[in-house]
Amino acid sequence: MGKKIFSGVQPTGNLHLGNYLGAIKNFVDLNNEPANECVFCVVDLHAITVNQDPQELRNNIRETVATFIACGINPEKSIIFNQSAVPAHSEAAWLLSCVARMGWLNRMTQFKEKAGKDKEKASIGLYSYPILMAADILLYDTTHVPVGQDQKQHLELCRDIAQKFNNDYGVDDFLKIPEPLIQKQFSRIMSLKDGTKKMSKSELSDLSRINLTDDKDLIVNKIKKAKTDPLPLPSNTDELMKRPEARNLLEIYSSLKNSSLDNSVGEFKGKKFSDFKDKLTQLLVEKINPITLEIKKLVNDKGFLDKILLEGHKKANNIASKKIKKMQEIIGF
Length: 333
Ligand code: AQP
Hints:
This protein is mainly alpha-helical. It is built from 14 helices and 5 strands. Strands 1-2-3 form a 3-stranded parallel sheet. Helix 3 packs across helix 13 (273-299) and helix 9 packs antiparallel against helix 13 (273-299). The two termini are 35 Å apart. The structure holds adenosine-5'-tetraphosphate. Adenosine-5'-tetraphosphate binds next to strand 1 and helix 1.
């Protein structure tokens, strides 16, 4: 039997190599399996948990759809839509926020990282974001959620919320308990400037990430400037684990090449970083440049992107509106 797949990406700016290798590449593989039913959501309600410029947000929503398609997601074999177009997401988030417990949310490490020192000034939305994420997933009877390693904790919370709703209302199996699909390897791509921090859209320095819209010259420059350490590349994986920047760059190389980390370590052991960086740059340009060119072409075709969103919205709304209605009945409305 096929899987019911749901995953979301925030339209908060250029998508980067971490989004691609940690999540979108996996979406494409899952979408290519004929038995799977896939829903890919541009999670614009999540995006506004931090300030967004309205015009930029509108452009970013379209650009995220363009990126999905440029990376290989087939809009005819999946539902692509933006979250705010389907009201059931916000409604279900409220219903589920009456089921979720404060203690559960207080443990979420992403809120602590994103809110930083001044928690009092963070939006309530940033705090309750994982409940909205649970609503997104549960409305579609999702069986599997492909995400990067950073979303594992939110998915565990989603499972707890579903279980509690089913228990509280005595509706065994009404909300399906989803499984995370996190790649065993290379599921956390790190910043090019600090191998201990994840590559992220919101990091101030653009040199910390490869955006999927970066042209060849930018990729060359960013890899040249990527942080390394003074030693030659290590001769075994154990040694590599103690060197975060070397590890990250070799993981990026392996992931792009669909090769094991052991093989890549073998290929470059004892070599200078400059030699390895040349090969990495070549591979990045080879894999990313076709995506970049396709994104640039698609973003100019607003009519095409809007049509995909509209069709996706109709299909998503059809599924989600039925599920929310049943939820309301169960609750007593
Ligand atoms: N560095 C990463 N390595 C692997 N996977 C990653 N993902 C994000 N960063 C990495 C995965 O990409 C999917 C979409 O992420 P998102 O855009 O919804 O939000 P995020 O996880 O918060 O990503 P960013 O880039 O860090 O955005 P900002 O800076 O706006 O918060 C998810 O599956 C995520 O796991």
